[in-house]
Amino acid sequence: MATLSDNPQQLSFAELVCQTNFSFLQAASHPEELVRQAYFLGYQAIAITDECSMAGVVRAYTEIRNNHLPIKLIVGSKFVLNQQTMVLICPNRQAYSECCRIITNARRRAEKGEYQLSEWDLKTIKHCFCLWLPNESPQNNNLEWGESLKKHFKERLFLCVKRWLTANEEDYIVACQTLANALSLDIVASSAALMHDPSRLSLLQCLQAIHQGCTVSELGRNTLANAEACLRPLNKLNRIFPANWLVNASLLATACDFCLSELAYEYPAEVVADKMTPSEYLRQLVEEGIKKRFAEGLPTDVRATIEKELRLIKEQSYEHFFLTIYDIVQFAKAKGILYQGRGSAANSVVCYCLEITAVDPRQIDVLFERFISKERNEPPDIDVDFEHERREEVIQYIYQKYGRQRTALTATVVCYRFKSALREVGKSLGVNQVDLDFFIKNVNRRDRAISWQSQLCELGLDPMSTQAKHFVTLVEQLVGFPRHLSQHVGGFIISAGPLYELVPIENAAMHERTVIQWDKDDLESLKLLKVDVLALGMLTAIRKSFDLLRRHYEQDCSIPFITKLGDDKQVYARVQRADTVGVFQIESRAQMSMLPRLKPSCYYDLVVQIAIVRPGPIQGDMVHPYLLRRDGKEVINYPSKAVEKVLARTMGVPIFQEQVIALAMVAAGFSGGEADQLRRAMASWKKNGELTKFRAKLVTGMTERGYSAEYAERIFEQITGFGEYGFPESHSASFAVLAYVSAWLKHYYPAVFYIGLMNSLPMGFYTPAQIVQDAKRHNISVLPCCIQQSEYDHKLVPHKKAYGIRLGMRLVKGLKQSSVEKILSYREKNVIYSIQQVRNLDIPINCLQALASANAFSSISDNRFASRWELLDDRGNLPLFKQGNKVASKPQAYLRQPSLFDDLIEDYASVGLSINQHPISLLANADLLPRFTTANQLHKLPHKSLVSVIGVVSCKQSPGTAAGVTFITLEDHTGNTNVIIWQASARAQKAAYLNAKILQVKGILERGDGGVTHVIAGRLIDLTHLLKTLDSKSRDFK
Amino acid sequence: MQFDTQSLWLYLHFPMLQLNVLEQSQVSETQDIDKPRAIYQSTNNQIVQVNQAAFNQGIRIGMGLAKASLLFSDLALHEYMPEIEENTIQQLAQSLYLITSDIALSPPSGIILRAQNMLHLYGDLKSYWRIISYCLGQHGYDYQAASAYSIQSAKLLALQGKTLITEERKAIQQQLEKCTISLSEIDAKDVEKLARIGVHTVKELQKLPAAELANRVSRYSMNVINELRGHSPAKVRFFQPATEFQDFIELIYEIEDLQKLLPVLARSLSKLEHFLYVRNARCMSIALDLLQREESPLKLEFNSALPIYRSSDWLEIIGLKLERTALSAPVYGVELYCVNYEITPVPNDDMFAQKSYHIEGLSLISRLISKLGEDKVKSLSYHADFRPEKCSQLSPVGHKRNKQPSTAYADRPGILLPQPQLLTHQISIIKGPERIISGWWDEQQIQRDYFVGQDAQGQQVWVYKTPDNQWFLHGYFV
Questions:
Q1: B196, B200, B221, B385: best mutation site toward chain A, by most A Cβ within 10 Å?
Q2: How far does CA A822 lie from the centroid of its chain?
Q3: Nearest CA of chain B to the CA of A861: how many Å?
Q4: CB of B362 less than 8 A from some CB of A
Q5: By the CB < 8 Å criterion, does B356 face chain A?
Q6: What is the pLDDT of residue A387?
Q7: Residues B89, B198 within the same domain
Q8: How far lies B274's CA from each of A612, A993, B264, B268, in Å?
Q9: Domain count, chain B
Q10: Is A191 a residue whose pLDDT tops 90?
Q11: Inter-chain residue contact B216 with A226, CB threshold 8 Å
């Protein structure tokens, strides 16, 4: 082999074969790292060629674009077929489409995560260049394969030689040269890189071990012999490759002109009416909307806003996007599916006119311009929530209207998180499984005071051992690595032509669903628009409530109807009392304890309320300043005019995600692009922890501009808090509408509201038991499940001159809806008077047993035990007994009567709630409890008084935002008591803290702002054993 | 199979057997037996046995691992191994066999005794029980015992923790009625069914009309119920003493000094002595497996020139050999076997007997092993590793051999030096480099560029260069 001299001549090189960590478990560097390294090494170009995938290319492209790196990105993909490796690279747009198409075909043929290429696929290629890496094993079909490739690809075929400095490589290279001569092919040099830097060798081998399901030491020779599969310096390449091979690579790169920025999105044409431009059609629709939404006349300032918005939309050519969403919501509207738009563009007047959202722009002073920001050049964001039970109809509509070729779901890249990384790295290093379980169970990631690395040492990892050092480093490196592609919750991409020409599509885990290989960030980078079709349980609940109002009150309600009525003092009064069980967004315990302090009294207060009880503002310590300023206890001041503009709406305290980003721009000097990166880093903070790199920039930027370092640190803390659960004003504004609507329903039509809610479960925060308890506290009659009266759903029934709730059979655990339907259709024509009748309906025995346990047969049987006893008799299924409605010989009556306690246990076991009994009242009536104060009496006690409370532990939370504190909710028959347990108390009384189902807490009553009452726990006493005593006691009494 | 509805049965339940066995094998007096300790069954993530100290910390049977470790992070956990318990009840049955005849095992942790026919021998139940409890006391395991006129009843009573030894049917019935059926052998599904109609105790169960009940539970459950009522006979297979001796001891603390193992072995050897004694037997060889953490078990064999049975004699022999034995990793358990306890004849072969080479080879190897020790006799095997030193390894004779891939021969010299030598003379490079960077995971990392070279004498050599530009000679091509 010819060797070149060592003199450093200026040489250009392009790496044409390079895999990123999106070739899952095959390569050990992020796309960003690879392009940065290639630039650093002075490469002319780099190709990203993941195996049958384009998932990593956009990240590489974005890295180059954002940092203006002078390096060319080439897009391609690697394939393995018949033990031969081919890399296709795309010189132009047609080639790119081809490549996407064959990836799609190969992926669609195989299971999720696999691919199956056929020779036919290769034959359909007309534009791509093909780099062929001949098989290295001595027994190969290289010549034959080369001939067939040559026959098809002709001048577009190149032979690619990688040199990894392995044993016997010379022989292979000679063989390649012979092949090249025989087939008259040009040879292209490559490193076939799997890493950006040799230091990633250990991580790469760790990934290979994970892939092969063994430990690193068991890999033996099934791994790399050295770290040469990386991007190598030019002078080294110069030494190990003949110059013309390097030149060939460079020439080939020059011939590739395709750039991802060429991917212009072609919108579906059918959303625009015939003979109209998109712009004209959008204006027409908006004008029609104005007549509906502003029937009483359009104020001039609103008209001005509309014009401005339309102009902005036109300038950015976003008409199709709005029209597509309009089309989807029109479908939902026609089908009576409730929906609500949210997101940066959703609260515009245009969207209000297009009926995408019900947020009346007059209620909220939000500028659409801020949402479609020309300066930040980010696409408009509209998410549409639909009723969770009917979203599938919307999805099917989209598939039907645009066809499966033109629409697919966006991918979500599932990344290694701390726990998965720890487990996989541990396994590959041969760490004992029990130890790994122990580490994973005991490392507290929320403990920010002690890093997980130190925690592992506390748990017994020897920090000085080499093994431990490898372990920690590899886990650190692996966190944030992509693991596999999953489907986004509801982000659709819809195109004019076949989607597979734009981006490869693969199968999702869910049957009949397909996902593209890019996630939402990738789409955003390429300015491709996606439509978010999301599911929201509260919309189902509200729609079901509206239906009930129509049926029983003849009142035609809708979200705009309620919002148009304006802020209702009585509704807000209830909200301020934190009487909000079941109310959208403001029902959690944390929200409920904030309501009496924040006292929301108008729509915008609700917007703030929803956003303030979030990790962002809490971690940024912004809640107290806001409350103080609201109560007029702190002066509202602004460090500068620019900041005032950003923060004036929230009294100078940053609450919303948008404000924090704007603050980074005005106060820390972030450019538009940087702010955009910051926003994205926030969204993926948990995944890859990229946010930390902004810290220094933010803090220096702010201190340089005269802000205190402490304030800057708080802002950064808030940013990381948003990272955990980002919450922008644009979303809060839409949620606040639903929060208000649900609060309004709860205030004026509580029975209707509870039924709507319970018929939409599972959703929200509360169990049916808690909702029923709340209903009873509001003096609503709740009637039990009954075989003669109940339907599948809960229903509104007249009861004692008012409406009560008749529980439906959906509550009965283990009962199938189809069984209920059989009962209901039988009941249409017959009266049920015996269990045998129901039994004859071919209902599975376990469903019947479930009904019996739920006491649904109480109207036709002595008690639930007797019903079950009768059903247990398997003779009831014999044909002889089925003929008549009555059992031939009546079996002996079942004598054992359920006690109150039995009823309670059976109620909880069968329907999860008890209408008549509460464990605490049962225990109290049996004189088993020590003296205690019930929840409804606590308000009578003075602040700081000693108190003893007893209840069922219904909720236990240790939020990450409250270091070491546990919030426990104790439920008794009168209501809920909030207990706060400090870490020390919990630690000292672990057994009771962890085990108690019925808990007595002796402590001090604290009453804070707005009359929020808590009990600070001193002693915890586990009273769970009393249930057993009660059990035997109630038996003795029967 | 035995059928019997009139006999009095005794049921012995050992609720903490594995824990007891573990704590008895404790290595030294100074180490704290009161440390909270629990047996954990990972298959269903449940604590199954806890000692008093752990109980005092709030650890309860049925808890998951996460909760238990939250309650007490220093809890000593041991994986549940039913075979330990089964083994132990075998041994218990062996010793009970000397004093009572009809024994049946109820694995993993129960023993059934038919008391009825022993009452004549011992006079009355009280005397019989005294002997039994004395025997149990010698072993020192926690137990719960109960007598009843059916095995199911005795078992249920014993499981409920009521130590009730009586012949009075009324007293037995009274206690039995209080028992909850969830601990009985009734199908879990039927127990659930019955609970859902308010039937939790034997008393409630017995109130139900049997004929009606038979239509509502499985046939198996109905048999159990009938047995509990005393209406149906017991079916048991009686215990036969084992023909081989085997004893496993899990150590509480891992030990590295083999001398400290002797007290533990003494306990096992006295069990062996007892085993041999009751069989009037002696043995010439016993085997001992030392289970080592992260290593394969160390297998030792001890031979005596004369057949012996006393534990003290064996202990002496073992002690001598252990002095010469080195451990490569701490020992966490020992297993003692005695398979052949009849006197084995001394082999009588001579050198000139006709044998196949294979047999000869094997017998040579086995002789070498017994003369030199197993660790001294090795064979060569191939190991897939990029590091040249690691490719050929010595491994114990009889180990499975890896097949060497053809590529592994390539570019490798016929003679590899045991230690690379600093290259002191000029050579010319013929081929290379082959770069090897490997072994970061076991702290024997190498980073070398190998070349095939030729020295002045025309000898082809295998040399390598380290990152700091040092050259070494590593082999010769022949």
A1: B196
A2: 38
A3: 14
A4: no
A5: no
A6: 93
A7: yes
A8: 76, 50, 16, 10
A9: 3
A10: yes
A11: no
Residue B445 CB neighbour total at 10 angstroms: 13
- Of B324, B343, B362, the domain-final residue: B343
Residue B167 near chain A (CB below 8 Å):
no
CATH number of the domain enclosing B336:
3.30.1490.100
Q: The tokens 């090897």 sit on which residue?
A: B436
In A, which residues are within 8 Å of B449 by CB distance?
165
Query: In the structure, what pLDDT confidence band is assigned to residue A1034 with cuts at 50, 70 and 90?
Result: very low
Q: In this complex, do A896 and B207 lie within 8 Å of one another by their Cβ atoms?
A: yes
pLDDT tens figures, B385-422: 888 888 887 877 655 555 555 555 567 888 889 899 99
Do B306 and B175 belong together in one domain?
A: no
Do B143 and B200 sit in the same domain of this protein? yes
Task: Look up residue B278 and give its two tokens.
Answer: 């009751």
A·B CB contacts under 8 A: 110
Using a CB-CB cut-off of 8 Å, the residues of chain A touching B442 are 217
CB contact (8 A) between residue B193 and residue A872: yes
Give the Cα separation of A56 and A38 in Å (integer): 16
How high is the ipTM of this complex?
0.72
H helices of A136-233, where?
142-153, 169-183, 201-212
Do B286 and B412 lie in one domain? The reply is: no
For residue B379, being part of any structural domain is answered with no
Q: What is the pLDDT of residue A700?
A: 86
Name the minimum distance, in Å, from the CA of A898 to any CA of chain B: 7
Q: How many angstroms away from the CA of A879 is the closest CA of chain B? A: 16
Contact B331, B292 (CB under 8 A): yes
Give the range of the structural domain holding residue B322, as residue numbers without chain letter: 248-343
Question: Which of A31, A23, A67 is closest to A47 using CA atoms?
Answer: A31
C-beta separation of B475 from B424 below 8 A: no
Q: Is B385 in contact with A220 (Cβ distance < 8 A)?
A: yes
- Domain shared by B200 and B260, yes or no: no
Element (H, E) at A65: helix A57-66
Residues of B in contact with A469 (CB under 8 A): none
**How close A154 gets to chain B, by Cα (Å)?**
33
| Cβ-based neighbours of A884, under 8 Å, separated by 6 or more | none
Q: Which two tokens stand for residue B139?
A: 């072993």
Residue B82, pLDDT above cutoff 80: yes
Chain-chain contact of A226 with B71 (C-beta, under 8 angstroms): no
Q: Kindly list the distances between the CA atom of residue A513 and the CA atoms of A116, A503, A670, in Å, as whole numbers in the listed order.
A: 18, 16, 40
* Together in a domain, B421 and B311: no
Could you tell me which residues come within 8 angstroms of residue A265 by beta carbon, excluding any fewer than 6 positions away? Answer: A495, A502, A527, A528, A529
User: pLDDT for A160-171, tens place per residue?
Assistant: 999 999 988 888
Among A170, A227, A442, beta carbon nearest to B69: A442
Is B430 among the domain residues?
yes
Domain-ending residue, one of B229, B260, B287: B229
Report the range of poorest mean pLDDT among A80-89, A530-539, B282-291, B449-458. B282-291
Does B415 touch chain A if contact means CB atoms closer than 8 Å? no
User: Do B16 and B132 fall into the same domain?
Assistant: yes
Task: Look at residue A609 and tell me whether its pLDDT is greater than 60.
Answer: yes
